[in-house]
Design goal:
Chain A: Its EC number is 7.1.1.-. Chain A: It is found in: Cell membrane. Chain A: It catalyses: a quinone + NADH + 5 H(+)(in) = a quinol + NAD(+) + 4 H(+)(out). Chain A: Belongs to the complex I subunit 6 family. The structure holds 2 protein chains of 2 kinds. Chain A has 2 domains: 2-133, Up-down Bundle (Four Helix Bundle (Hemerythrin (Met), subunit A)); 138-181, no CATH class. Chain A has helices spanning 2-21, 25-45, 49-74, 78-87, 90-112, 127-134, 139-160. Chain A is an all-alpha fold. Chain B is an all-alpha fold. Chain B has one domain. Chain B has 11 helices and no strands. In chain B, α3 runs parallel beside α9 (225-250) and α4 runs antiparallel to α5. Chain B has helices spanning 8-37, 53-63, 74-91, 109-130, 134-165, 170-175, 187-200, 212-215, 225-250, 262-283, 289-319. The chains are: A mainly alpha, B mainly alpha. Chain A binds chain B through residues 24, 26-27, 30, 33, 49-50, 52-54, 56-57, 60-62, 65-66, 68-69, 72-73, 126-127, and chain B through 73, 75-76, 79, 106-108, 111-112, 114-115, 118-119, 121-122, 125-126, 129, 137, 140-141, 144-145, 147-148, 151, 155, 168.
C-alpha cells in the first residue's frame, strides 16, 4: 500500500508539472486529469475512499470536461500555441517559482520537524463519517456553499436567458391561426 | 470475499473473457433481433443462424486499413478509443455477478461505477476534438453536454437505492433486496436511471453524438479499422454494463427462486434488459438535441430530487 502511495504521488507530481509546461491546452488538461486520478489514488491509499471517488466524479469527471467543452468552442490553432510560447519567457517563471519555493520550504519543514509528525495511526474515513461531520460541525460551510452555488446558477440564468425561442419558421404561431407546436 | 481468494485470477480472467465475447455476440444478437422486430431475416447465411457473421465482422475490423488522418492530433486520436473500453471494463470490477463472483468487493462500489462512467465521456470528447473535423467536433460537443447532464440525474437517481440499502457496496445492496426488489419502492428512480443509462451509453434513441443522418457518425467519423472497433465494442459493453447495474440495483441481482443457481438468474435478467435496449433501438425515433437537454433538466432533474426527498422522508418516518 505504501509503494502504491509513492508511485501515485510521483505520477501526480510529474503530471502536474507537465500540465503547467504544455503549450497545447488540451494536452495540458489531459495531464491535469491524470494528476487528479493520481491524487484520487493517494486519497484511497491514505484511507479516504469516499474522497477518492468524489475527486474522480467531480474534478476529473465533471469540471475538467466542462473546461474542455469551453476550449473546444474557442477553436485554437497552431498560431495560438506559438503565441503562448512567446508569452512564456523565462522572466514570467520567476514570480511563481519564488512563491512555490516558499511553499516547498514550508512543506519540507512540516515533514522534517519532529513536533509536527502525526501521532495517531491512519483511520479509514468512509462516507458515513464524512456525512456526519458535514452535517454536524461543518453545517455552516455546507450552507454557505449552497448559497454560493445558488448565486452561480442565478448568474448563469441571467447571462444565458433567451429573448425569444425560434424553433423553425414554419412552426411559429401566426396571426389568425392557433399555435401549431 | 474470503471464499473467492483462491481463484481470484480465474474470476478476473472469466469476467474479461465473458465481457469481451458478450460485446462481440451482441453484434449478431442485435442484428437478428432488429430484423425480427422489423419483419426481416437479418444475417442468416454465414454458419448456423448466421452466427459466423461475428467472426466475419471481427476479421474485417482487424484487417481494415488503420488510418490516422494527417490533420488529426495523433496522440490524443490514438488514446481516445482506448479510454472508452478501459473505463467500461474497469466498471465491471465492482459488479457482483453471484455470491463470490466479484472481482473487487469495494465499499464505494457504486461511486466507483459513477466515476468510471464519467471517465467514459472523455473518449467521445477527445475523439471528436482530435479528429479536427467539423462534424466530429459537433458530435463531441453534443456528447459532452449530454453525458455531463445525464450523469447528474444518474447519480441522484441511484442515491434513492443507497438510502434504502444504507451502503455504497453493491453486494450489500443486492443483499438488502432479499425482501423486496428495489424497483417497486424506487420505480421512479429505476425509470430515471434507465433513461440516463441510455443517454450515458449514447444508444439510440439518444445517439445524438453520432446521429449518422445529420453528423455522418459524429465523433468517430475519422476513425477506421480497430480504432473504430474499440468505440463499437465500448458501446456494446456499455449496454451490458448498464443492464448489469439495472439488475444489481433494482432487480435483486443474483436473487431468485432456488431451482436455478444465482449466476443463471443474473444472466437471465441481464439478457432481458439487453433485449429491451435493442427493442428501444428498433422502435424509437431520435429526439432533437435541445429536446433531449430540456427533457433532462426540466423534467428528470425535478423528478429525481422529489424521488430522493420522498424516499428520505419515508425512511425517516418508518424509523421513528
Amino acid at each position: 500500500m505504501e509503494l502504491t502511495f509513492y508511485i501515485a504521488a510521483a505520477v501526480a507530481t510529474v503530471a502536474t508539472i507537465l500540465t503547467i509546461t504544455r503549450y497545447n491546452i488540451i494536452h495540458a488538461l489531459l495531464y491535469l486529469v491524470v494528476s487528479f486520478l493520481a491524487v484520487a489514488v493517494v486519497f484511497f491509499t491514505l484511507g479516504a475512499p469516499f474522497m477518492a471517488a468524489l475527486e474522480i466524479i467531480i474534478y476529473a469527471g465533471a469540471i475538467v470536461v466542462l473546461i474542455i467543452f469551453v476550449i473546444m468552442m474557442l477553436n485554437l490553432t497552431h498560431e495560438d500555441v506559438d503565441k503562448e510560447k512567446a508569452w512564456l519567457t523565462p522572466r514570467v517563471w520567476v514570480g511563481p517559482a519564488i512563491l512555490s519555493l516558499v511553499l516547498l520550504a514550508e512543506l519540507a519543514y512540516i515533514i522534517l520537524a519532529p513536533d509536527t509528525q502525526p501521532t495517531e495511526a491512519l483511520v479509514a474515513v468512509d462516507a458515513r463519517v464524512v456525512g456526519m461531520s458535514l452535517y454536524g460541525p461543518y453545517m455552516l460551510g455546507v450552507q454557505l456553499c449552497g448559497i454560493l452555488l445558488m448565486a452561480g446558477i442565478v448568474g448563469a440564468y441571467h447571462l444565458g436567458r433567451q429573448k425569444k425561442k425560434v424553433v423553425h419558421r414554419f412552426l411559429q404561431p401566426k396571426e389568425g391561426r392557433s399555435a401549431a407546436i | 470475499m474470503e471464499t473467492a481468494a483462491p481463484n481470484y485470477f480465474l474470476i478476473i480472467g472469466g469476467v474479461l473473457f465473458v465481457m469481451l465475447n458478450v460485446a462481440a455476440a451482441l453484434i449478431w444478437v442485435e442484428r437478428r433481433m432488429l430484423a425480427l422486430w422489423q419483419d426481416r431475416y437479418g444475417p442468416n447465411r454465414a454458419g448456423p443462424f448466421g452466427l459466423l457473421i461475428v467472426a466475419a465482422d471481427s476479421i474485417k475490423l482487424f484487417f481494415k486499413q488503420d488510418w490516422v488522418p494527417p490533420f488529426a492530433d495523433k496522440p490524443v486520436f490514438v488514446l481516445a478509443p482506448a479510454i472508452v473500453v478501459i473505463s467500461v471494463l474497469l466498471s465491471f470490477v465492482v459488479i457482483p455477478f453471484a455470491p463470490g463472483i466479484i472481482v473487487a468487493d469495494l465499499n464505494i462500489g457504486l461511486l466507483f461505477f459513477l466515476a468510471m462512467s464519467s471517465m467514459g465521456a472523455y473518449s467521445i470528447i477527445l475523439g471528436g476534438w482530435s479528429s479536427n473535423n467539423k462534424y466530429s467536433l459537433l458530435g463531441a460537443m453534443r456528447g459532452a453536454a449530454q453525458m455531463i447532464s445525464y450523469e447528474v440525474f444518474m447519480g441522484l437517481a441511484l442515491m434513492g437505492v443507497v438510502l434504502m440499502a444504507g451502503s455504497f457496496n453493491l453486494r450489500e445492496i443486492v443483499e438488502a433486496q432479499r425482501g423486496l426488489w428495489f424497483f417497486i419502492p424506487q420505480i421512479l428512480g429505476f425509470i430515471i436511471f434507465f433513461i440516463a443509462g441510455i443517454a450515458e451509453t449514447h444508444r439510440l434513441p439518444f445517439d445524438i453524438p453520432e446521429a449518422e443522418s445529420e453528423l455522418i457518425a459524429g465523433f468517430h467519423s475519422e476513425y477506421s479499422g480497430m480504432k473504430f472497433g474499440m468505440f463499437f465494442i465500448g458501446e456494446y459493453m456499455g449496454i451490458t454494463l448498464i443492464s448489469c447495474m439495472l439488475v444489481t440495483l433494482y432487480f435483486g441481482g443474483w436473487l431468485g427462486p432456488d431451482f436455478l443457481p444465482p449466476i443463471v438468474w443474473f444472466i437471465i435478467k441481464v439478457v432481458a434488459f439487453l433485449m429491451i435496449f435493442i427493442l428501444l433501438r428498433a422502435s424509437m425515433p431520435r429526439p432533437r438535441y435541445d429536446q433531449l437537454m430540456e427533457y433532462g433538466w426540466k423534467i428528470l432533474l425535478p423528478l429525481t430530487l422529489v424521488n430522493l426527498m420522498v424516499t428520505a422522508a419515508v425512511l425517516l418516518w418508518l424509523e421513528s
